[in-house]
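Case study 2.
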Amino acid sequence: MKNKSLTAAIKSLKIESKAIGDMAEYLDRDAFARAVDVLANARLIMTCASGSSGIAAKKFAHSLCCIGKSAMFIPPCEAVHGGLGALKKGDVTVIVSKGGKTTELLPVIDACRKIGAMLLAVTENPASYLALHADLLLKLKVERESDGLGLMATASFAATIGIFDALLAALIEETDFSPEQFALIHPGGAVGETLNALGVSFK
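Prediction:
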């Protein structure tokens, strides 16, 4: 490996670490608290995004299911072809877009408003269509991406995962989610084996 390649790798780690760490300083505590309340009491949480943001949104939906919340990820192309039928008035839609104006998401945003679902936006652009039409906004601030080209969703992806994991951590406390509950819905894999070995069971 070239020396400059290793330098780029170390630089990437530092940039992404900073992107996540900075959130603790600029996080809008009031908006975050409202988001936790809304998610904790939602009948259904639907996450939606494209590209790398879609991967983060899918991971968040899965994480929510792991703590007993009814959640699903739907890509925009599926959402606008009937998938939004799962969404009812009062449900929550979490839409992620770095620039907040991804073309595929615009009809999803409009449909959510018409259905009467609560729209939680995660974006770096507070002046975007997504942010301006959201009921709640969690804003990200990423100074730069971590790849040498500055084009890949790297630091911004890490920051998105970071805010979703922060919501997850808060929801676990907010809902008093217990190891016993987790043992019931996660019997497989190393985690399930560990819980079973410890004798953790749902009561």
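The mean pLDDT is 93.
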